[in-house]
Amino acid sequence: MPKPRKPAVRRTLPRGAALLHDPIINKGTAFSKAERDALGLRGLLPPHVHTIEEQVRRALDNYRAKKTDIERYIHLVSLQDRNETLFYRVVAENLEEMMPIIYTPTVGTACQQYGHVFRRPRGMYLSAGDKGRFRAILANWPYRDVRVIVVTDGERILGLGDLGASGMGIPVGKLSLYTACAGINPVNTLPVLLDVGTENEALLNDPLYMGIRRRRVRGPAYDELVDEFMTAAGRNFPGALIQFEDFANINAFRLLEKYREKVLTFNDDIQGTASVTLAGLYSAMRITRRPLGDQTILFLGAGEAGIGIGDLIVSAMVDEGLAPDEARRRCWFVDSSGLVVRGREGLAAHKLRFAHDHAPCPDLAGAVEALRPTALIGVSTSPKAFTRPIVERMGAFNEHPIVFALSNPTSKAECSAEEAYNWTGGRAIFASGSPFPPCVLNGRTYVPGQGNNAYVFPGVGLGAVACEARHITDRMFSEAAKALAACVLESDLEMGRIYPSLTRIREVSANIGAAVAAVAFKDGLARIRKPANLLRHVKSVMWKPEYVAYV
After folding, report:
1. Could you report the per-residue pLDDT of 322-347, keeping only the tens digit for each?
2. Active-site residue, 174 included
3. Is residue 482 flagged as an active site residue?
4. Disulfide-capable partner of 485 in 279, 287, 460, 530 (CB 3.0 to 4.6 Å)?
């Protein structure tokens, strides 16, 4: 990835007010006196020249004066719209505080209110009415060197359902994390919303809704739109990584299978969630002292996240020596109709490989009693589904029961950290998708781990960009999980945290990027010659939020 260059002032930079309205190159009050003279800024800015550190202080003072999380979200997005370098400096230096604002859980609220809090457009909107024109529309994007695209059709936004065009907040938020966590230059990113309609009646009747007002396009017509986008994106931005995000189950699995061998792509809900969960299990095993192949894992939820996790766990178990059938029998699923078992009518195709011989169980409690799992993983978006009796039974079967309540946002979590710790006397190994505060029990402070995909997908994208990968493979996500788990310190485990501190996220992303790139080189999927020091090469392409001197 090219490093920032010192541009030729008169030929490549706008001047005056136009420069101040370009968030990529605007420095606000940090423009030097020489730059103000050369660029026609004299008099358009207050006379004092501030350092970026002083600007960060001002931004933080304003941010922390806001009363609600949605106000904080709007404040940060507005800063991003004015000055991207300053935005990323503020976020990168305060990631633990701000990730819950720029991503889960607050981004969910922002998407629900998107048409009402809208300030300035970000990304590209491709609607069903634009069919046949996608390539020309994508050519309107002002930056040609796009390396990472995040695309959604808005049908399954977090655990909130169909938000149509209001789902644009997700690609915008994801790409913010690519930059803040892994140093992907913001000019190399592109958020995309495929607006194919919505089934959300409230949005269709909302005069401030910003999408097309029609029911969702389905069937072959939908596939044609997705295919046109994939083709247009490949021609406009050759070699760019395309990340599928928050597509519904009916489309997510088949689109991944359709394109994964054709272009550089992955589905974060399937593969990213799987990788971060597998990493959590690896960390938990350092506490339980039981290998992965000895685990019995019960999932609540058999959608794209759950099945994706199951598939990656099976792959990891096979790598450790288990036969594929035995590895699959270590993973069990409960859906809305009870335990997924062989012979049950009407099972979706993606569930069949995890449908084992067993007597039917109508609910999660019955399945826990029958299977006595070592790990309980919630990806159901069913709040409070991990009840006290269920968690207590997990504690009765296991010295350290593994309880992952991964559904987002926080309101959809299967249980809270406090509940998991209290109901097991502090013995649970807990992780969640959205953050929970530390919990004090019997004089000990527990810091719950957040199994956030932000630990994985930025590093995977970084590795793919750094080696110019041709494809993203499941083995890359397995290696990413190992690299993430290896970053967890003993001091983290002692406080119950099975993921590293977010303050180390750029270090973590660099290690994951190197692991992903190593797989690409080993499997012949890299387009560049292998560098002598892979980690050093990955770090060298990471953009830093620092101002460039223009004169």
Report:
1. 999 999 999 999 999 999 999 898 89
2. yes
3. no
4. 279
